[in-house]
Write a structure and sequence with these properties.
It is built from 14 helices and 23 strands. By secondary structure, it is an alpha/beta fold.
Length: 504
């Protein structure tokens, strides 16, 4: 089969291209402004793609055209597909038909933590010698790739609630045939897709309702909305949590009042996290992982429950958790220069921003924490979340907020006001600055940096290559208290140009 992917450089689309190539199909594609790491991955795979949208890219009449979810009417290549009546479909539909049918699918969903949890599940199953196939919206450090196709019956997939394509506005996760479904948490997000929290909750309720009664639902018991909706599950529920046993939160009919998987005696430090695991009242033992923060403890519990449901034994689960090295762009140390550590994270929802800052506090105890936040996603640029961002960024010693990514999408009533956000932080005694452009942010940090500082940069886009620019500036500058300017190069290169839309 010849598949042509329009929007091939999106994370999920490029990974699908790799899966199809591994299956033996011919793959071509197109995109605009292709950049690393996806461009490098496509080149390594030997996949032909055009760095432009053009009807000429469809020469040879591909058997199937896959339309990425960032592609809309008016795209010249899409219009040619429609005019010529070529067969077209979505990435999610191809994944379902070519890779998921007949397998034990571990589908990892939730508002927060999908990429880390899916990566963890895949690694725990690898530690158990189950050799899973996987498709993940990030790059696990242990695998070095975002996809893999094996002969295993187990397939781990990150199940995104974002829409599927311009002709299919339902969530991608509805296509994924979950046998073991993980839902870590549910909290309103993607206001550009879902009109309100009722619509958002319905997306997850329907996903839960897809799990066969012989399958398993792994559910985060510390999430009130999720805990209440688990009653729709015909499958047994493996709940997990770290919150108080008596939370007073609503519980689905017939569900236990406490989590079946529970973490206790949690201890975090710069080297990682240690905690004890109890399942159904039985103490399984103490585990270690390199990740920091309570939210990563929850991710770990979810992954352990899912791996166990897929057949992994406890000893392999514990060893896999201990050796897991994390995911790129999730609390990833990009380098150190002048004694200042630069950390990259994908956080963009206010809850994720708060949890990431709390994890940074636990990991880098006693060090000054500078938070740099780019309001880039649709949610991040909405006024209704402004107070929540103030609370979250207040967990840093110094907060720097960048300009809105696409301010023209909003009016004065709906647009987040960065200057008001900064004023509210300053009124609470928190050092805070509004710097619209990357150059200004880099200059401000270099002027005020001290050896031992941690700069945590949070954005779900390329942010104008800020990480490399900051590290280079710190290495060349005179940082107070630094023994010398000795920069460490970033661990991987490339970032999205500042005008590029994030895609799946």
């Amino acid at each position: 089969m010849h598949y042509h992917l329009i929007g091939i450089a999106g994370t999920a689309m490029a990974s699908l291209a790799g899966l199809l190539r591994a299956k033996g199909d011919r793959v071509t594609g197109s995109d605009q402004g292709v950049y690393p790491p996806m461009s490098l991955m496509l080149d390594d795979l030997g996949i032909e793609y055009a760095d432009r949208y053009d009807p000429a890219n469809l020469a040879g009449d591909p058997d199937v055209v896959v339309v990425g979810n960032a592609i809309s009417r008016g795209n010249p290549e899409l219009e040619e597909v429609l005019d010529r009546r070529l067969r077209y479909t979505s990435a999610a539909a191809v994944i379902k038909e070519r890779f998921l049918e007949g397998r034990h699918v571990v589908a990892v969903a939730g508002t927060h933590g999908k990429t880390t949890t899916a990566s963890l599940v895949a690694w725990l199953l690898e530690a158990a010698a189950l050799e899973p196939s996987f498709l993940i919206g990030g790059i696990p450090e242990d695998f070095g790739v975002s996809f893999r196709l094996t002969d295993s019956q187990v397939f781990v997939i990150e199940a995104d609630e974002y829409d599927t394509a311009y002709f299919d506005k339902g969530p991608k996760m509805w296509h994924y045939l979950p046998w073991t479904a993980v839902v870590s948490n549910v909290e309103f997000d993607h206001a550009d897709i879902f009109r309100d929290d009722i619509a958002y909750h319905f997306a997850f309720e329907r996903f839960i309702n897809l799990v066969p009664r012989a399958g398993t639902l792994v559910a985060g018991w510390d999430s009130p909305a999720l805990r209440a909706m688990c009653g729709v599950s015909r499958a047994p529920v493996q709940s997990f949590g770290i919150g108080p046993l008596d939370t007073g939160m609503p519980t689905a009919e017939g569900a236990p009042s406490h989590p079946r998987w529970r973490a206790e005696r949690i201890c975090c430090g710069e080297a990682g996290t240690r905690f004890a695991v109890r399942r159904d009242g039985e103490m399984l033992g103490e585990v270690e992982m390199r990740l920091a923060g309570d939210f990563n403890v929850l991710n770990g519990l979810a992954a352990m429950a899912a791996a166990a449901a897929a057949g992994a034994p406890w000893d392999a689960i514990r060893e896999g958790l201990r050796t897991f090295r994390g995911v790129r762009r999730r609390m990833e140390v990009r380098g150190e220069a002048g004694g200042v550590t630069v950390v990259d994270d994908f956080a963009h929802h206010p809850t994720a921003v708060a949890a990431t800052l709390e994890a940074a506090r636990q990991r880098f105890r006693g060090r000054r924490l500078i938070a740099v936040f780019e309001p880039r996603s649709y949610t991040a640029q909405r006024r209704e979340f402004q107070e929540a961002y103030g609370t979250a960024l207040g967990k840093a010693d110094h907060a720097i907020v960048a300009g809105l990514f696409r301010p023209e999408r909003y009016d004065e009533a709906t647009r987040l006001d960065p200057e008001q956000l900064i004023a509210s932080l300053r009124a609470r005694g928190i050092e805070a600055d509004y710097e619209p452009a990357v150059d200004g942010i880099v200059s401000r940090i270099i002027r005020g940096a001290r050896a031992g500082d941690v700069v945590l940069i949070m954005s779900n886009g390329g942010f104008g290559g800020i990480h490399e620019r900051l590290l280079a500036g710190l290495a060349a500058g005179d940082v107070e208290g630094a023994p010398g300017a000795s920069g460490i190069a970033p661990r991987y290169g490339g970032s999205a140009p500042s005008g590029r839309r994030a895609r799946g």
